[in-house]
Design brief:
The complex is a heterodimer of chains A (about 400) and B (about 140). Chain A has about 400 residues and is an alpha+beta fold. Chain A has helices at about 10-20, 25-45, 120-125, 300-305, 335-340, 360-375; strands spanning about 25, 50, 55, 60-65, 75-80, 85, 95, 130-135, 150-155, 160-170, 175, 185, 190, 200, 225, 230-235, 260-265, 275-280, 280-290, 290-295, 310-315, 330-335, 340-345, 350-355. Chain A is globular. The chains are: A alpha+beta (about 400), B alpha+beta (about 140). Chain B: Keywords: 4Fe-4S, Electron transport, Iron, Iron-sulfur, Metal-binding, Repeat, Transport.
C-alpha cells in the first residue's frame, strides 16, 4: 500500500466539522490552492472539497406511497396529474419516472414536440406544495376490492415520497454536433446542420466524479446535496463504466462512472429539482447534486485540483452516428475550450452551447461548503466504494 | 421612421365615420391594413401598422382616442421569467441575434432585449420555459 504523508480519517474530519475547525473549499477554489502550495500542503490545510452539478438527468424519479383508501385498492395503473406512474409494486406504491410524458401529450406528432408536462414537472409541483390529482385503477381482489380511486394529494399528505435516481452525475459526457443537412432536436439540445453548434453537458472542474476519478471516497452511504436537501449515494448508477479510457491523470475521456442516489423528497426544494421540456426529445428533470470529497491524503488533494484544461471529451455526431450506434469521434476537446465559447472542428470555429448550469453548480458547491463549515452537514463514510 | 402594429376597436356609434384617413391628411402618417372586420352589432376592428415620426404617431393616437376609438398595441416582445431561468445556456443554440448570450467566465446567461428580434425560437428551446411572448405596452396607450 502506498504511503501518504498526510492521513486523515472520516471520523477526524467529522470531529473538525463538529468543532467548527474544518477547512472547506470548493473544487474551483482547490485548483489554485494545490497549484500554489502543492498537494501535500493543500491536504494538510484543506479537509473537504465541495463539488456541484445541475443539469437534466433523465434517469430520475420518485417512489411514492399514496396511502390506503376505504375500501382498499391494489393499484395496477396510477396517474399523477395525468402522468402515468408504474403501479406494478405493492398496493398503494408507485414509481413516477421523470421522462414520462403526460398521457394526452402530442409527443412528436408535430416535430419537434414541446413536451410541456411530464414526471419531472409533477415532482417539481409536489415540491412547490401544489395539489396533484391522483387516479388509480385496479382489477379488484377480496383483500383490495376497490377498482378505482381519485383524490388530490400534496407532498405533505403523502405517507412517503423518496427520490430514487438510478443514474445521475455522469462522469463526463459527449460533446454533440450535427453533420446532417437539417436541424435536429436531441436530448443534447437543438443542433444546427453542418456542425452549426457544439453542445456539451458537464460542470467540468466542478463536477463530482471528475474530482474523485477512481471513486476512492464515493460509495454506499456517501452523504450528498440532492435536490436542495440531503441524499445519499446508494450504489453505482446504471451504465457505470469505470473501464473508460483515461488521461494520465486518471480523468476519463468518454462517459464513465455514474451515481445511484436517493433521498427523502419531503426535505427537497423546487429550485433544485426542476421539471424540464426538451424540444423534440421529451420531458426530464434537472437535478441539483453535490458531493463533498474528503481530503484524506495528498492524493485526494491532487485529484480535486483537476481543472477544465485537464478534462477532455469526444465530439460525437448526433445527426446520424449516435442514433445508429456508430461510436466515431470527430475530435477530442477540453472543457476549457468548450467553456470558452467556441471549438475548432476541421479548422473551422464552431460555437459551443452548454446545457449544464455552471451558475447553479457553483451555488450548490457554495451551499455545501457553508453547511459543512457551519457544522450542519457531516460526511457519510461509505460502506464500500463504487466499482473501479 | 417609427412604426407600430395597433389594434383599433370602433364602437358601433363611430364605425361609420371616416377617421383613419385623417391620420394621413392631418398627422402625416401612413399605414398598412393587416386585418379589418365589422361585427353584426356594428362594432369594427382594424389591425394596422402605423408609420410616421414619433411625435406625429403620438398625436395621431390621441386623435383616434378623442374620436372614441379604443387603441391597443398589438406588438409582442419576449420576456424572461427570471425565477425560472437556471442559466443552463440551451437557448443560446437557437438565438439568431445574440440577444441571449453567455457572460464568461461566470457562465451567466444574459438576455439583452434590445437585440431581440422576437423570432420566438427560444420559447420552446428553453427547457424550463422561462421565455415568454407578451404584448408590449407603453404608457401613452393607457
Amino acid at each position: 500500500m502506498k504511503e501518504h504523508k498526510i492521513n486523515k480519517t472520516y471520523q477526524e474530519i467529522n470531529e473538525k466539522i463538529r468543532s467548527g475547525e474544518v477547512v472547506v473549499v470548493t473544487a474551483e477554489e482547490m485548483i489554485d490552492i494545490v497549484k500554489d502550495e502543492g498537494p501535500v500542503e493543500a491536504a494538510r490545510r484543506v479537509d473537504v472539497v465541495t463539488t456541484g452539478t445541475f443539469a437534466p438527468m433523465c434517469s430520475s424519479g420518485a417512489f411514492i406511497n399514496f396511502g390506503h383508501s376505504v375500501p382498499g385498492i391494489k393499484a395496477s395503473e396510477v396517474w399523477l396529474n395525468n402522468v402515468p406512474a408504474y403501479g406494478g409494486v405493492a398496493a398503494v406504491d408507485c414509481y413516477l419516472g421523470a421522462t414520462q410524458p403526460c398521457e394526452d401529450d402530442p409527443l412528436n406528432k408535430v416535430y419537434p414536440g414541446e413536451f410541456n408536462y411530464g414526471g419531472g414537472h409533477v415532482i417539481q409541483d409536489l415540491l412547490a406544495g401544489k395539489k396533484i390529482h391522483l387516479k388509480a385503477t385496479a382489477y379488484g381482489t377480496t383483500c383490495y376490492p376497490n377498482r378505482m380511486i381519485e383524490k388530490k394529494v400534496t407532498l405533505e399528505t403523502l405517507p412517503s415520497a423518496t427520490l430514487c435516481n438510478p443514474r445521475n452525475g455522469y462522469q463526463n459526457y459527449n460533446c454533440a454536433i450535427n453533420l446532417n443537412k437539417k436541424t435536429v432536436y436531441t436530448y443534447m439540445g437543438a443542433l444546427k446542420p453542418r456542425a452549426g453548434n457544439a453542445n456539451y453537458c458537464s460542470a467540468g472542474q466542478l463536477s463530482p466524479l471528475f474530482n474523485d476519478p477512481y471513486y476512492k471516497t464515493i460509495g454506499l452511504g456517501t452523504r450528498i446535496f440532492l435536490g436542495g436537501g440531503t441524499g445519499y449515494v446508494t450504489w453505482h448508477g446504471t451504465q457505470h463504466k469505470p473501464s473508460a479510457d483515461r488521461t494520465e491523470k486518471g480523468v476519463p475521456v468518454t462517459p464513465a462512472g455514474t451515481l445511484f442516489v436517493m433521498g427523502d423528497l419531503k426535505q427537497m426544494r423546487p429550485e433544485w429539482l426542476v421539471g424540464v421540456s426538451i424540444q423534440g426529445y421529451g420531458c426530464s428533470l434537472a437535478v441539483g447534486l453535490g458531493v463533498p470529497i474528503p481530503i484524506l491524503n495528498e492524493e485526494m488533494a491532487q485529484y480535486t485540483a483537476v481543472s477544465d484544461e485537464d478534462i477532455f471529451t469526444q465530439i460525437i455526431d448526433y445527426g446520424h452516428d449516435y442514433g445508429n450506434g456508430i461510436s466515431k469521434t470527430y475530435g477530442q476537446v477540453s472543457y476549457a475550450e468548450l467553456k470558452s465559447g467556441s471549438i475548432k472542428l476541421n479548422g473551422e470555429d464552431v460555437p459551443t452551447v452548454p446545457l449544464s448550469s455552471m451558475v447553479k453548480a457553483r451555488e450548490i458547491a457554495d451551499i455545501l461548503k457553508k453547511q459543512i463549515s457551519e457544522g450542519t452537514f457531516l460526511l457519510g463514510e461509505p460502506q464500500f466504494t463504487l466499482p473501479v | 421612421m417609427y412604426s407600430k402594429i395597433l389594434i383599433l376597436r370602433f364602437p358601433g356609434d363611430v364605425v361609420h365615420k371616416p377617421i383613419v384617413c385623417s391620420l394621413v391628411r392631418d398627422y402625416d402618417l401612413t399605414f398598412n391594413i393587416l386585418n379589418a372586420t365589422v361585427f353584426p352589432r356594428k362594432e369594427g376592428i382594424l389591425v394596422l401598422e402605423l408609420y410616421g415620426t414619433r411625435k406625429n404617431f403620438r398625436q395621431g393616437v390621441s386623435y383616434l382616442k378623442e374620436q372614441g376609438v379604443h387603441v391597443k398595441n398589438a406588438e409582442q416582445e419576449i420576456k424572461r421569467k427570471e425565477e425560472k431561468c437556471t442559466h443552463c445556456g440551451a437557448c443560446t443554440a437557437v438565438c439568431p441575434t445574440g440577444a441571449l448570450s453567455i457572460q464568461r467566465p461566470e457562465m451567466i446567461v444574459n438576455f439583452d432585449q434590445k437585440k431581440c428580434s422576437v423570432c420566438e425560437l427560444c420559447v420552446p428551446a428553453c427547457p424550463t420555459r422561462a421565455m415568454k411572448v407578451r404584448p408590449t405596452n407603453y404608457a401613452f396607450f393607457e
